[in-house]
User: Fold this.
Amino acid sequence: MKRILILFAHPKFEQSRANKALVKMIENKEGVTFHDLYERYPDFNIDIISEKKLLAKHDVIVWHHPFYWYSCPPLLKQWMDVVLEFGWAYGPNGKALHSKKCLNVITTGGTRAVYCSEGSNQYSVNEFLRPFEQTAKLCGMEYLPPFTVMGTHNLSDQELEKYTFQYQKLICELQEHLPFGEIKNCEFLNDTPQLNKVVSK
Amino acid sequence: MSGSILFAAIVFLAGAIICVPIAKRFGLSSVLGYLLAGILIGPYILGFVGDEGQDILHFAEFGVVMMLFLIGLEIEPKSFWQMRKTIIGMGGAQVLGTMIVSYLLFTYIGFDWKVSLIISMAVSLSSTAITLQTIKENGLMNTTYGASSFSILLFQDIIVIVMLAIIPLLTDTQKTAIDDNHADHIYLLENLPLGFQALAIFLSVVTVVVAGRYFFVPMLQLVAKTRLRELLSASALLIVIALAYLMELVGLSPALGAFLGGVVLATSEFKHELESNLEPFKGLLLGLFFMAVGASINFIVIGDNPLMISGLVVAVIVVKALILFLVAAIFKLKADQRLLLTIGLAQIGEFAFVLLSFAYQLNILDRVELDMMLVVTALTMTLTPILGIINERLILPRVGTKKAEARQVDHIAKTHKVILIGFGHFGSAVGRFLRSYGIEATILDNDSNRVDLLRKMGFEVYYGDATRLDLLESAGIAEAKILISAIDNSDNVIHLTKMVKEKYPNVKLMLRAKNRYDAYDLLNMGVEDVYRESLETSVKMAGDALNHLGFRKYTIYRQAQKFIQYDEEGLRRMADKPTTTDEYIFKAREEIRQQEEQLEKDLKRGIIEFDNHWDSEQMRAAHKVPKQ
Assistant:
């Protein structure tokens, strides 16, 4: 069973309906470490050594955050800046993260429809996530397509519940069946048959 | 005039108060002012002071002892050890050279060889009092000139012991009437064999070192605990007098003993406290000494033999200057430093009074020779400061480099850019954090136990009451960039603030305030950086309590910062209002009133507004589309 680290970054978690529901599903799951960055480091003073130890203990790294201004909230960026050190995470001797899997789990207010060349956001989520993708690759990790919960502003309770089950299933799949399915061709992990099945149930 | 002591005191003090400022006004050194005051009140002009001038001279020599103690305090044993070559080399060359040349000169003039030898001994010695006082006044102690002068003078202080030991050997008429005439020399060891004398001298030096470390320091710590300032002054005086007495007992120069004692105490936490306690005594006694020298110039002797005297004065100064110049050249002093040294030490010193009188009592010198040489001594002492001024004004500007050279490189007691007052719970955190940045603050604290402990831990901490300006000055406030006060006594902080704002307005003040009411006072005095000791901690505590109740840390963190900011702004607003009255009872009432005002404002503000950014509720409302 793969060990999963969820690096959760949400400055206003207490007000986020979608994320509260998502986190509730997975935070106490066996084999999952739910790491609440804004609760742990309210003053942004990240403990680099303990973060590195935590990374070393896991096989899959999940960056779970709301999509703020087409990126992550600042503490997660700070985490990347200070933890992913040269000579440790990347560079000639930086092999600490090699062959781990990495992905983004994001929530967006806008729907999938607005994230395309015709939509108001012009670019797709995958395009916006390029910096994360490249960061993971430079660190020698395999970057998986993102799991997205989009259009959160208008999500009904039933729709949100579906997403939470999907998230739960995703974690199971990551734990047990990696690599699963034909993910390379998917835009989002939501589109894989395994997760689609969950929704249709 | 042998009236009451009070009258003599009035004469001397008034003389000083009148003459020294005048000398200073004309840009002359205070030494010259004192000397002129002495001449003025002496027996030949105003006649206020008569024969007792000589006694006063003896008494006032103690000023020299104190000065050497104070100089010792500024020289750490390590630096002293580094100076040993200069002391023996320069000092030895100077004394030997001067003795040989002046011996030849005086025998050539026609003096008996014994008399010539005695006189050459006297001539080879320079005046510690005049030279060092002038050097200190001009702030030249840390130049090559200062260090060289000091080395030579120190060697003279040592060699005079040998001289005093040799003089009795020159007499044929066995010690007959010596001890009767010479009451101020209690020479305990006189009748002991030479080996024992040497042993006794060695033991007494060891005693000084050991007593300094293991007796004086604990004594000062004990005294410090009483927190009575005058007791510290008394202890300081006791130490110097005891050292001087011990040295006199074994026949060493008291000044030398005091210097040694000073060096031993230089590394103790009481260094600055001793300095500021003894400084006024030293100043007064030295002034008195210079005046006594001035008063002892016998104008009748000069009148009887003006040519001989003036010839001798010129000859002595020229011989001394020549030798000094050569020595300075051998030791490669720069041109301007060499000139300063040449003229600075070209007088006969106060030891001559002792040597010559001693020789007179042993019947080696006769009355005429003694009077003549005493006058020559006093005149050279008066003339060299004048020559120094001529050198400084007319010659040095042509030689050049002086300004650059005069820059103080204070290697002895490094002055820091930050002075930290108080090293208790509050101050220690400040000091430790500064230290973690490599900023070593000069720390003042008035708890001697703590000072001792911290010094053991390698901190540079000094003992003393920081509300004293002189102590702050010796801690280097003139060069300090920031003064941090971490003391909790509000009255002391206010006193300190007033004093520093007035005397050193350029030093940045950063003050710890016990509470908001102290903070008001300090803000109203125009200090910007006021730190309430409890504000951040209490807000942090409340924040942690909120976290235990389930609130998110990051939100609490932001709100706490806002709260502190709000409170600081409120504090500054309220501080602008003039306080109604200073009476304590009204002050207490005023505090309650202000607290009420504060609580009302909090209430009006209501529960903290949350940040608006990324507010999901708002966005959801805006995006509300009819359900399909």
Residues 453 and 459 of chain B are 9 Å apart (CA to CA). Residues 174-186, 400-413 of chain B have pLDDT under 50 and may be disordered. The first strand of chain B starts at residue 418 and ends at 421. Residues 367-399 of chain B form the longest helix (33 residues).
